[in-house]
Amino acid sequence: MIKAQIAEIKELLATPKHIVVVPHKNPDGDAMGSTLGLYQYLKAYNHSVVVIAPNDYPDFLKWLPGNDSVLIFESHEEDSEALIHNANLIFTLDFNALHRTGGMTEVLENSKATKIMIDHHQQPDDYAKYTYSDAGMSSTCEMIYNFIEFLGDLDKIDSTIATCLYAGIMTDTGSFRFPSTTGRTHEIVGDLIAKGANNAEIHNNVFDTNSYSRLQLLGRAMQNLKVIPELRTAYITLSQAELDEFNFKKGDTEGFVNYGLSLKGIIFAAIFIENQQENIVKVSLRSKGSFSVNQFSRAHFSGGGHDNAAGGRSEDGLKTTVDKFISILPQYKDELSPK
Ligand code: 5GP
Ligand code: MN
């Protein structure tokens, strides 16, 4: 973000505004951490601020400070539309295209508010007046820290803001182990701990609050894990019947795909999750090294994301989707075959 833009944003924020902060649909830890962290920062300046999430999110994020003030668009459409209509400023966080907000897309497109995008996904759309986009960043939460620093306000980060930002950096970096984690990421995280983020408690709140049925579902997912060693690929399927059997709740399958990638020698992992309500199969893709799952998802599963973590969908049913996946893989054998 260039200095002139920072100065303009500072000017905008100098007087109280009506501000809406929006994460992507199916918000994850980074989306909720960044929106709630920014929400708290802006509130301290006496702006009237609200976080509006397109739809609901998992329980393991509901302990985040400020969670109770979040409005869910899907279940409060009228109130949300009125707030968006009245907003002078809209921050869109952790996504690169308005359609990533699902049912909110049109309302956001039609809004006259000044839009500010802060995001770390590749190929950002050009919808915002101010775009702070950097695909090299570990997380949007790291960028919110930078943004607050650009505004000269690091001393305004209190323990609640620090907690939100820490949670998002932790979840988006796979607990600080993905290659997107840099020395700078660790410096920021160190500062967030110094400012009051309780790292052990945050980790516990996110990762050690499993239900028994979720662990049983994980067991089934592991039984369904298939490996294609000659293409260094592993994939998991979960049918709607299996989800129902283990009393599936939103967020229960979060992170399952990473188990495929933890197999020795595997560099490409996928999970296919049937969703009968939406009549789709949700696809999550992860890779190690230079194989881009963002491009793979864009090309074959109407999705996108990052080089090493992407999502997508299919409307072909579970079996056909998996068959399609298996039939596409050989096209990538130059990249996937063992060297
Ligand atoms: P997940 O597999 O956890 O749903 O998503 C992995 C990453 O890809 C996240 O950063 C998420 O924001 C992004 N992503 C997931 N689904 C889509 C999609 O349909 N389109 C795009 N552009 N990105 C996606
Ligand atoms: Mn993110």
- The portion of residues assigned to helices is 25-40%
Would you tell me which CATH topology of the largest domain applies?
inorganic pyrophosphatase (n-terminal core)
Instruction: Quickly count the helices.
Output: 14
CATH superfamily of the largest domain: inorganic pyrophosphatase (n-terminal core)
- Tell me the Rg in angstroms: 20 Å
CATH architecture of the largest domain: Alpha-Beta Complex
Number of strands: 12
Termini separation: 40 Å
Count of the separate structural domains: 2
Which term fits the overall shape?
globular
- Poorly predicted parts: none
Major pleated sheet:
6 strands, parallel
Question: What letter string, H or E per element, gives the SSE order?
Answer: HEHEEHEHEEHHHHHEEHHEEHEEHH
Assembly state: single chain
What spatial order of strands do you see in the largest sheet? 3-2-1-4-5-6
